[in-house]
Each structure stands twice: as structure tokens, then as C-alpha cells.
Design goal:
mainly beta, globular
């Protein structure tokens, strides 16, 4: 029986292990992405880097504070948008922690979004719900269908 043909569009153009990608602007680091494995796929003018084996993304604001995103896997799109999947945890510089299964971060407005179930925990409250949008620092966020708990003093 003849072997099935493998389409080259389903094959990565290149693969790398223990990868770190740095995005900077005028010498200022804006984003650092690292993963155990990366596969670059190209189709025409489009390119994406699929990351697996654990994903770490550091998003830096102007004063150097970082928001850390960890996940099982992710994708960096050619426009620098980033998606993260599987046990996504976002930790902001102020200690806010958000957990979900999928987020995407758009580079043009530097916002983080999800349409999945999310849990956001802070020192005095926990908010849960479906649908989420935030700035990268997690200082200004909203959950579209929310419920939660707060401590009163």
C-alpha cells in the first residue's frame, strides 16, 4: 500500500527548541516570549510561530513593570498578536491573578481578551465570569458576564 502524501503546508518551515523571542521598540524591550519548542509555519505572506512544551510571556509597560503569562502552548502571529492556550495564568505586577483556558493579546492596542470562563483573584476579591478584556497591566479590566466575592472591612 502506498504511503499517504504529506502536504508541505502542514509541515513547519523550521523548528527550534528552548526558544526565546524578544520584541523591542527603540531599544526598549516590550515583550519576551519563551517556550521549550517552536514550529514556524508559512503560507504565502502569512507566518505564525506555534509554541508548545510550556509558554512564558512577559509584557513590559513603560516603567518596566511586567505582566507574566504562562500557558501550556501558544501562537505568535506575524502581526505580533499572541494567543495562549491550556491552563493560562496571568500575573500582574500588583499581584492580580487571572486564570482561563484561552487568551489573545492584540499588539495594536496592547489589550488581553478571552471569550472563555475566567477567574480573577486579588488581595480582597475574586471575580468569575465569561468574557474578559484588560489592558496588559491588568489595572483596567472587565468581565462581560460576571459573578464574584469580595471581603468587606
Amino acid at each position: 500500500m502506498p504511503a499517504a502524501a504529506v502536504s508541505t503546508k502542514d509541515m513547519p518551515a523550521q523548528e527550534s527548541w528552548n526558544v526565546t523571542l524578544v520584541v523591542s521598540d527603540n531599544g526598549r524591550t516590550k515583550t519576551i516570549v519563551s517556550a521549550r519548542h517552536a514550529s514556524e509555519y508559512r503560507q504565502g505572506e502569512k507566518q505564525e510561530i506555534r509554541l508548545d512544551g510550556g509558554l512564558n510571556v512577559q509584557l513590559f509597560d513603560r516603567d518596566g513593570s511586567a505582566t507574566l503569562i504562562t500557558a501550556g502552548r501558544g501562537i505568535v502571529h506575524d502581526n505580533h498578536d499572541i494567543e495562549a492556550f491550556d491552563n493560562v495564568v496571568i500575573r500582574s505586577a500588583d499581584g492580580t491573578v487571572m486564570r482561563t483556558e484561552h487568551i489573545w493579546r492584540t499588539s495594536h492596542d496592547r489589550m488581553i481578551r478571552s471569550d472563555k470562563y475566567v477567574t480573577i483573584s486579588g488581595p480582597s476579591r475574586t471575580i468569575r465570569g465569561y468574557g474578559f478584556e484588560s489592558d496588559e497591566a491588568m489595572k483596567h479590566y472587565r468581565i462581560f458576564h460576571a459573578s464574584g466575592e469580595a471581603l468587606s472591612k
